[in-house]
Fold these 4 entries.
Entry 1:
Amino acid sequence: MFSKTFSILDVSYFYKAKLLSKLCLIGESFIFISYNLIYVMSDYFNWSDADRLSPDYFQTFNFIYVTLILLNLLHLTYSGWVKTRPTLHNTYMYASLTIYVVTHSLLCHLLGELSINTGIMMTASPLIGLILFNVRGVIWGALVGSTMVIGGLVATLTGYLDYAPLIDGAYPIYQNTAFILFTLAAVSPHVLIVLLLGYHTIQNWKAREALSVQNAETDTLTNIPNRRKFGELMGLAISQCKHKNSNLGLIMLDIDHFKQINDDYGHLVGDRVLNGAIAQISSSLRHSDVIARYGGDEFVVIMPGASLKTVAEAAERCIKAIRDTSIEVEGEQIKLTASLGVTSSQISSKLSHAEFSRQLIKVADDALLVAKKRGRNRIQIGMLLDDDERAEFTEENPVITD
C-alpha cells in the first residue's frame, strides 16, 4: 500500500524530469489542438473580429508550438540513452525544466504578461518544481521563467512586441470570446497538474505519517504492538471496562530459559522461538484480546471484560499451546515452556486510569515472578485487593503437567 503511494515522489530526479517532460508534451499538445479548434470554430460560426483570435499570429503560433512539441519528443526519445548514463541525469533534469519553463513563458506572453493567467502559471510552476525537484532546480526554472516574462514585458513596453498578440489589440481582451476560451484551455492543464500533484503529495505525507506511527507502535520482529502502544491500548481497555462496569484481565507471559536458547543456538533461532510462541498465544486468545511485546521475551495480554476464571482459562490454553511447540534446529527439537502471571480486577474508582494500570501491571508482573520462583512452566494468579495497594497470590495455582 505504502510503496504505491510513494511511487512518484520517491523516484530519482531523472524519472521525475521524464515525467515533467511527458506532462509538458501533453499540455503543449492540448494547447495546440485547443488553439486550432477555437480558430476553426470562429470561422465556422462567423464570429465578429472582436471575438476572434488574431489571424496575423496563426502561423507563428503553430510554428512555435509544433517546434516545442517536436523538441519535447526528441528530449523524451533520448531519455532511454540518458538513463544508462547516470552522470547525465542532472543535465537531463535541467533540460526538462528549461523546456517546461520556455513553453510556459511563451504562453504567458501570448496571454499577456500582466494577466491573471500568467499569475496562475507563475504560481503553479514553482509549486510543481518544489514537489518534484530540489531547490536548485526550482531556482534555475524561476530565473529562466522570470527572465523571459520580464523580457517579454519590457519588449512590449518598448514596442518591439505586441501585448497578448493572439488577439487584435483594438478590442478589449476580456470581452473576446475566443481569447476567453483559449485562456481556459491554456490554464486548465496547469491547475489540473498542481491539483493532482498536490493531492498525491498530501496522500504521500499521510501514508508516510501512518507508516511512521505504525513503526513507532509495532514491534519489528513479532509484528505485534510494542510497549509504547501497549500503554495506549491499556488506557482504552480501562475506559471501556469502566464504562461497561466489567473486569479487566491481564496476563504477563515469559518464555522459560529464553536467554539460554539465545546463548546456545544464536539470536536467529531465538527470533524463531519468539515468533512461534506468539503464533501459539494468539491462537489461544479471544478476538477481543490484545497481545503486546512488553520487553525481551516477556509478553502481555490485555483481556477486556474477562473475569479471573476467564483469564486463568485463557492462560491454560496459552501454556498448553506453548508446551506443544517445538523448534527444529539442525535435527534437534527445542521444546518450549512458559511462566505466566495472571490477574483480573474491576476498575478502581479511587485511582486514576494511569495509576490503576500501573497497579494491575505490577500485580500480574509480580505473579509472573512468583511463578518463576516456584519452578517455572506454571501459571500464578495474583489478585488486587480492595485497598488497591496490595496484592496476594494463591498458594494453589494451575500447573500444567504431563
Note: The CA atoms of residues 380 and 396 lie 8 Å apart.
Entry 2:
Amino acid sequence: MLIGNFALFGATGGRLFVHGEAGDRFAVRNSGATAVVEGVGNFACEYMTNGSVLNIGGFGKGVGNGMSGGFLYQYDPEGLLADRASADSIVLGSIIGDDPQAAIHNATVLQLLHLHVEATGSEKARSLIDNWQVEQHHFAYGMPRALLQYQDFDEILAAATRKELAGEVAAALVAHQVRKFKASYRSGTPVAGGVTPNGTDTEAMYALLNNYTVLAAAQEMALQKVPGSTGTDDPAVQKAARNLLLTEDFFLINKLERYALEAISGHTDTQLAALVADKRLTDYTQALALRNVRSVDAPGTYGGSCGRAARISTLPAIYPVTRNCSPATRCPVSSPRPWEFPHDRAFHSRRRSFHHRPALVAGRLPRGNADPPVLRWFRQRCRDHRLGPYPAHPVRVADG
C-alpha cells in the first residue's frame, strides 16, 4: 500500500496518479477529481458525485456504494466486480461490444492509462496499453443508477406519469420564456434583438410570438392589478407587468404553464419523455460547464451525457426541441437550443411536413393578404383580452 484510507476525500478537481495501492474508501465523496490507482480497499468511490476513477488493481467490497455522479472504471480479469459492487447504486457495463456507451468509455479508459504512464511510468499501465486488443475485454465501467434514472429516456418514460412529464416540460418552456424577459429588462435591450413581426410562417416568427404571448399574459394581469388603468400604454400597467415578470409572479407563472400544457397536449408520452430527458441533460451539462475549471476533467461524464443526447436525437422529430451543439457542453453531438412554445396543434402537423413544403420553410406565403394561422390566432387573442392591436414594433423593455 502506498497511500492510506480516505485518500481523495471530497476532492473538487485535479488529477491523482497513484503508482501503487490505496486503502479503504478511496475517492469517497469525490466531486470532480480524476484519478488512476493500482489497487483499492473496501468502499472505493463511495458517495462519489462527479469525477472519474480508474483502478487497474485489486478491490474490496462495496465498490460505488451510494454513488450519484461521475464514473468508475475497473480492470476485472477475474470477473469479481459484479459481486463486490453496490448493485443498488451503480449499473455496470462493458467498454466493448454493443453497449451504446462502450465506445465512449473505451476511449476514456485508454486516455487515462496513457496519462498514468506519462505521470508515473507504470509498467502495469504500459502493459495494458500494449495489449489493449485483449485487455480491453477485462474492463468495466460503473455508472450511478441515480444518474441513469434521471437522464435516460427509457428510465424516465417508465417511471413518470404523463402528468409529471407534461408538468416538467411546461415548467421548462415557461422558465425559458420568462428568462428572456428578465435578461432584457436588466440589460435594457429589446427582446430577441428588436425583431418585428414580418408576416412569415417561420420558426423565428413563432419564437417572436412566444415573446408577445408572455407579454400579453403579464399585461392582462397587470390591467387587473392597476385600478383605473387606461390600457397597456399606461406607465403604471407597464411597471406592473415588468414587476410580474421580474419576480416570476406565482399566478402569472401558473397561467403560462396552463397555456404551455394546452400547447403540448398533442404530444405522446414518448415525445414528452424525450423532451424531459433533453432538458435534464442540458441542465446537467450546463451546470458542469458553469462550475468547470481547468482542474476538472470529468472524462466519461460529458461523453456519457452526450451519448444519451445522441440517442434522443435519433427519435422522431418533436417540437419544440431543435438542436445546435454548444461548445460549452464539450459535446461531440448535438444539444438543444432554448425551447420555444408550440402555439397550436395545427403548427405541429405543419412542422412535421416541412420537408414536403419548401415554400413554407422559406417563409414564402401564398399571394394575397392572408396571415399565417398563428398570426390570425394572435390577433384574435389581442382583441379578446383588450390588449390593443397586433403590435408592429419590437418587444422592448418599456412594453412590459
Note: Confidence is low (pLDDT under 50) at residues 316-338, 342-400.
Entry 3:
Amino acid sequence: MQKTGFKISLIVSFFFIFCLTLNLTDSFAESLTIYNDNLALIEVQKKAQIAKGRQFLEWPYVTEKLIPESVLVTLPNSVRLISQEYLFDLAGINMLLNKYLGKEIILHIYHEGQETQTITGTLLSFAGSQVQLLKTSSGSILVNPIGQIELPGLTESLLLRPVLKFDLESSFASVIPIKTTYLSRGFYWKADYVGNLSENFDLSLAGWVTIGNQSGKDFHDAQVRVVAGTLHDADNKFTMPERRVYKQETPAMVEDLQNIEPKKNFSYYVYDLKDLLTIRNKSYKQVAFLSEKTKAKQVFRLISYMEQEDRPQRPRHFQSILRFKTPTTLPKGKIRFYKEGIFLGSSELQHTPKNELVEAQLGEEFDLVAVRTIKESRKISQYIRKNKVSIVIRNRMDKSVEAEVTELFNKYLANIEIFSSFPYESLNAWSIKFPVKIPANGKVEITYTAQLFYNI
C-alpha cells in the first residue's frame, strides 16, 4: 500500500492543513497608528457569524511581531471572552522536523543509475533540513544520511501565518462585530524634507512621510496616521534599524502638495494621512504630507577653541549655515537642500514647534577664510594665564558679508575675563561671539585678550 506524507528535499513541497476561519464575514477595516521607533498601534474591525454556546474563533489579522500582552478585544455584551491565545509557530522545515524527533520518518536515498533506496527509521537528530542521526528498524544508526525526507501521518494543522485564537461563549447565534486593538513591533516612520532655495532665499519645503513595515504582514487599504514625539516605551529594548532590504516606492517630486494639519494629542502631534494606503511587508511607503514656504538667510560661522593650539594655524573656512523659522510644526527628519539645480547639502532636524529658529549646516564657504593665532601667552601666576589672540578674516567675494566668530573656552576654568575693543557677545560662561562684517575682497582682524583663571 502506498504511503502518503510530507516530503522535504532541496526542493520542498508541503501539503498544509490550515483551517481558515470560515465564519468571518467580508466586511473589514484596518487602521495603523505608527510611532517613530519600532512600534505601531493596530486596530482591526470585522463581523463574524457565531453560534450559540462555547466555541473557538481564529483571528488571522495579526502581525508576526504582535505584543500579546497588549491585545484588547471588544465584543457585544452577549458574548463573553473566556481566553485568548497567540499562535505563532509557523510552518517550516525546522518546525516540522522538530515534531518528528523520536518518531518514525522515511528517507529516500537516490543513487545514479540505480534504484532508489528507501529507509525507515526513528529521527534522533537534525540540523537545518539535514538528518544527522537516524536509527533504522534493524537498530543501526545512520550518521548524516543524505536523501529526500518523507514525514508520514501528520494530521495536525500547520500555521501559515500567526493567529489569535479566541475562546468565546455566546448567548445566542448571530453576526457580531469584533474589534481588536494591539501593539506590534516592526514599524517605524520618519519625515524627509526637500528644501528648494530661490535666488532671493525664499525657501520652499516639501515633506514626505516614509513608513517602514517589517512586521510580517501586509496591510491593504488601511487608514494610517503617524505620531510625532518621543514616546517612553518601557517594553522596547531596541529600535528597528532603518537600513533594511525593502522594496522602496519613491514618489515623484511635485511643486504643490496639500498639507496634512497635525492634531495635538497629549504631548504628541498626530498626522492623519488622508488616503487609504497599502503597506506591504518589507517595504517602504512614502506619502506627501507638507508643503510650506518661509524666508531663509545664509550665515557664516567660525568656531575656535582658546586652548586648541598656540602656533599659527592654516587658513580655516567658515561654516555655511542656512537659518530659517519653521513655518509649521516639523517632525524629526532630514532636510535636503537644493538651489538652482544644485544639491547644497543636508541636515538633521529634531522635533521642532512652529516659529522656531532652525540652523542647517550645509558645508563650508569657499571664499571666506580665517587665520587664528595666539600672539602672546603669558603666565601671570600659578593659576592665571593671559592670552592675546588675533583672528584675521579674508573675504574673496565681490560683496561684503556678515559673519560670526565664536570662541570656546575650557569649561573647567574658574573664571574668564575678556578685554577687546571689538564688540562681542557672551553666549554663556565659556563662550563668546564676535559679529563681524567683512568688506568685498577685503579683510578684518579681530584682536582680544583673555585672562584665564584656573581652579586651585
Note: The chain has one helix and 31 strands.
Entry 4:
Amino acid sequence: MVYQISCPCLFGLESVLAQEIRALGGEAVQVSDGRVTFLGDAQMVVKANLWLRTAERVQLLIGSYHASSFEQLFEGMYRLPLERYIGAKDAFPVKGWSLNSTLTSIPSCQSILKKAAVKRLGEKYRISWFEESGPIHQLQFTILKDEVTILLDTSGVGLHKRGYRPTANEAPIKETLAAGILQLARVGEDTALIDPFCGSGTFLAEGAMLAMHIAPGLRRTFGCEGWQQLEGVSLAQLFAQERAQAVANVRKDVSFTAQGYDIDPYAVQLAKDNVYRAGVAACVRVEQRDIADFSTDLPKATIICNPPYGERLLEIQQAEKLYQVMGQVFEQRRFLNYYIISPHESFERLFGLGADKRRKLYNGMIRCQLFMYYKGGVALSTAKKTNPHRTPSDFAAGERWRPSEGRTHSGDHMGKGRGVVGSARDARPSKKGPQH
C-alpha cells in the first residue's frame, strides 16, 4: 500500500529535508512552506522515522476537504476511511490548529471532528462505545483558509527528541535545526568540526552522528511501534529489520573529529554526557574555554556555532561585544569555513566581515540568519576603501567592515590586543550559565 506521507519541518529547512527524503527513496516529493510531502509504503514510514534528521514528525495524510461550517467539518471527517488506520480498541485523540479560516474555535473543531470519527468507526465496527485502551493513534487537523487537512501522526514524541539529550542548557538549539545547518555546511566523514559555543553539545553530537551514518532515531521509540499493524503490515517487524540495518550501516572508521568549547563548566560536562549518550564520544573532545582564547592550528576545519544573543540570555550590548570578539579571533583563511546562526540584524557589521552567503532560518519562533563564510574572507589590511556611510547590506561577500565605517566609538576604542572589549570575559552573562 502506498501512502501520502507528510513531514513538517522548521522554516528554511524544506530543501534540506526534501533532499533527505529523496536519498531515502521517497517518491513524488513536493515542497511547501514548512512541510515536505511524498509517497511511500509502510517500510518508508519506518525508515523516515528512523533516518530523517530535519523532519519534526512523520505523518500520514488521510484526507483533505473544504469546510467553512461545522456541518461541513463533520461531514468531511465522516467520509474519510479512518478504519484503515484505527482499530476498534485504539485511542484516537484529536488536536490541531486553524489559521485565516471561518472556523476559529479549536476546542469546538476538536469536538466536532472527534464526534465524526466516533460515528464513522462506530458504524464500521458496529459498536456504540469506544474504550480507547489500545495504542494511541493521534489525529491531527489543520485548517488553513477553510481547507481542512486530516493527518495521522506516526512519530509520537517529536523527532527532534533523539534520546541523547534528556537535559539541556537554558537556550539549546533544536536538534533538527542543528542537523540542517550541518548538512548545509556539508559536514561529512572527513570533517574537522569545531563549536566554540557548544552549550549542551548539540552540534557536536549531530555532526558526529551524520559523519558516522548513525540514524538519528536509533536510540528512541516511535508512536506507531505500538500499533498492531498498518493495513496488514507488522510495524514491529519492520522496525526490528530497519534498526538492525541501521546498526550495520554505522561507520566507525571515519576520520571525522569534533571539538567543543564553552565558558561554563556545567555546559562542558553536559556536552560530554550528551555525546557519550549519543555514542560518539570517541571522536569528540569538549573543553572549557573562553571565546577570546579561540584558535585552531588545523589546516582545514568547519566552525559552526550558535552564539548568545540579547533576546535570550544576554543583554544586547553584551552579545554585540561577543560578536566583535568573534570577528577578531576567527581567523579568515582558506579551508577554514564558518557557519554562524544569529538573529542580530547587524551581525556582519559587528563581526567585521560580510558573509559569503546568508540563509533565513527559524530557531524556534526566532527569525535568524545563517551567515556562511567559506571563501577565506579578505584581510582587514587589504580591504577596499569604502564609502563611510554604507550599511552592512552594502558590503560585498568577504569584505571587511572597517571600524570607522557606519559607526563611531565612544569610551571603547580599537587599541592593542583584543580591541573593543579587552576579552570576551568582559562580555559574560550577568548570571551564571552556558553561553547559549
Note: Residues 32 and 352 are 35 Å apart (CA to CA).
